[in-house]
Request: fold
Amino acid sequence: MTSLDAATARAAEIVIEDGLLGNPVPLWKQTWKRLLRKRSAQVGMIFIGFMILVAIFAPIIAPYDPNQVLIGVEDIKRREAPCVHLLGCDVAKPQHIMGIDGNARDVFSRLVYGSRISLMIGVITVSAALVMGVFLGAIAGFFGGWLDNLIMRVMDVILGFPSLLLAIAIVAVLGPGIVNALLAISVVSVPGYARVTRASVLSVKSQDFVSASRVLGASKWRILFTRVLPNALTPIVVLATMGIAGGILEAAGLSFLGLGAQPPMAEWGTMLGSEKDQIFSSPHLVFFPGIAIVITVLGFNLLGDGLRDALDPRLNA
Amino acid sequence: MLGYAIKRLLSAIPVLFGILVVTFSLARLIPGDPCKAMLGDKVSEATCAEFARNFGLDQPIWVQFFYYLRDVAQGNFGNSIRFSRPVSQIIIERLPMTIELAFLALIVATICGIAIGIFAARRHNTAGDVGTMAIANVGIAMPVFWLGLMMAYVFGVALKGTPLWLPPSGRLTAGLVSVPFYDVWGWQMAKGTFGAQFAEFISNFYIFNALITFNWAVFNDAIRHMILPALTVATIPMAVIARMTRSSLLDVLGRDYVRTARAKGVPDNKVVQRHALGNAMLPVVTILGLQMGALLSGAVLTETVFGLAGVGRMLVEAIFARDYPIVQGFTVLIATIYVVVNLIVDLSYTYLDPRVRPQ
Reply:
């Protein structure tokens, strides 16, 4: 009982706070406020913010050029273990806090620059999939009929494959490389967006304000883009946030198999893949890139979780 | 019920057909001449003409597709270029290992995932709940190949010499051989018949084969080799299942009938077991089906990490070797397994939940 009372009080508080009793507050502002109250969203934003800062200030943070081979430059060996002066490493030796990789490069610098690539991979794959998926889902849901059938059956076929497998098959045809890997990951994630968009469009398009628009003589495309789509965006935003995490993971997987980013690109999956056989002798080469992936992916997952809760007021009670 | 089952079965046909169209087109979309792609750049005109005739490449595209459908229906995926052997034979050798891995991972993920979910839900909002869910969140965010490498290091190297040591690669310790059950039992089978191929397929499930031939040395060894890969593949689905079980159970525990049960004095354990758990499992079953994709993808990546000769590793090797018949055959195979498993999950869902059972 008490939890119910508390929930009602919370709900009332949110309504008052968000100003619904006074001036209307835009949905996004309400969402933002609720989002800031979510513990998972807070942690997620901290992780993401950290990674974005690392990516922006990479040239300042990284002590070395990510592709610089240090043999002959410094007195180091290939795959040398981390040397941190604060932790008792000989001060005479050059400091490499995450060690040296198989090509005698500084792992920490590569990791720092890798954040740029991974964030870009996440954003690019999601944007591409989002544009294609939302467009296809919107016209399928809005126009219905044979067009709907055709689009959704094609989406069913794509969903018929485990996503990584289809991505592998596409890369097999196009040839290994980061661009082809991005394309493959975008294609396999289109159906998710298409399905969600179609469902929201279906639920929105029968509402009164859409009919009102139609009665006023707005064209179909105008109704779709200015009336229906903006009101169907909520679940898509959640999916896209999670999608960034998924895209980064899948791209890392493809790169790990050697099908994505190619050496010497400082991509985390590639760094892992090219040193995977050294796991027993130099585990640090595998450990750190994995941690970087976990932090980034976890950040977007948590933010997505928080967004979902914040955008769905029913769950807030 | 039967009507729905038939309808659902029929709905899988266009998807399977689409999968065949996609894999057929993938092979045709390979840039360049298929003849040169398969036989090398220095091949002569005449050889290429013969190659085209042999593979029906001089026919119109729809005829080629028809041939392809016919071949797949007969289980004929062509010959591997690299090994000059039928792809179907390679499937017989490689698939059992992947199924073994995915199956063990599924068992681990389901049992542990549900147990963890129940644990967290019953301690809702306590440190135990928050802690396990934080770990589950990290579990979902981990790249499966990284987890595999880390486990291989911890259990294979760091714990070397302790009883916790586990073999970090391979299927059996060198020196041990899995003897097929038909050899143990002295069966005589004509080579190449369906029966013989099926027997070989079954015997390649090392754990099962060792079990039915009472070869405990191989059985133990095969299990020990499977522990790390299975745990690796299981982690992500396990975390997903744990989260789903928790939220679903929390939802059910808040229902009126649970409160009624509590009010009439049913002990807490009984409330969860008798009243809540059954109803909380439905969304978990749905998630289970969706996780099959993660299991199969995980198997592909994990085989590479642990040096296991399954379909996933073969597929990746084939891509680099430009062995397109294998790529094509294995893609069709894995996608078909995926569709069939999802079909089974869907049907079991209707069986479990009377509400979605159509009247």
Observations:
- Residues 11 and 317 of chain A are 7 Å apart (CA to CA).
